[in-house]
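for the recovery benchmark. C-alpha cells below, seq after
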C-alpha cells in the first residue's frame, strides 16, 4: 500500500484499494497503480476524497499537498468561509490581496468615475 491508500483506508475505516481508486478516477487499475506509486495529484486526492465522503482539505493537508496555514487561508479574518462569500466579496478580497497599490488606486478612481457618471445621468 501507499501513503495515500493507507490514509484513505484509515479515514474510511475500511480498506480502500487501488482498484477502487481506479474506478473513482475512471482509469485502469494499472494507471491507478502507477499514479498511486508516483503520488496522487492534488486534483486526484480531491476527487477521491469527495467520492469517499471525506474532506478534501483534510486529505490535502494530511498528504502534504498544502499546509495547514494554506488551508486556513480559505477563511478570512472575520471567520467567513469563501464558500459563503458573495462574488463581489471574493473579487474585492482578491483585488486587495493581489493588486499593487497603483492598481488599487486606478480601481478606486474607476469606481469614483462610475459613481459620478451615474449621479450625472440620474440627478
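predicted aa per position
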Amino acid at each position: 500500500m501507499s501513503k495515500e491508500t493507507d490514509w484513505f483506508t484509515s479515514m474510511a475505516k475500511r480498506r480502500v484499494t487501488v482498484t477502487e481508486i481506479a474506478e473513482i478516477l475512471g482509469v485502469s487499475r494499472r494507471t491507478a497503480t502507477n499514479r498511486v506509486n508516483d503520488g496522487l495529484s492534488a486534483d486526484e486526492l480531491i476527487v477521491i476524497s469527495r467520492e469517499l465522503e471525506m474532506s478534501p482539505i483534510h486529505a490535502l493537508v494530511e498528504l502534504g499537498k498544502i499546509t495547514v496555514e494554506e488551508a486556513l487561508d480559505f477563511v478570512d479574518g472575520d471567520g467567513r468561509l469563501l464558500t459563503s462569500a458573495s462574488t463581489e466579496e471574493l473579487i474585492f478580497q482578491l483585488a486587495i490581496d493581489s493588486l499593487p497599490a497603483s492598481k488599487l488606486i486606478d480601481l478606486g478612481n474607476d469606481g469614483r468615475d462610475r459613481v459620478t457618471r451615474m449621479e450625472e445621468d440620474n440627478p
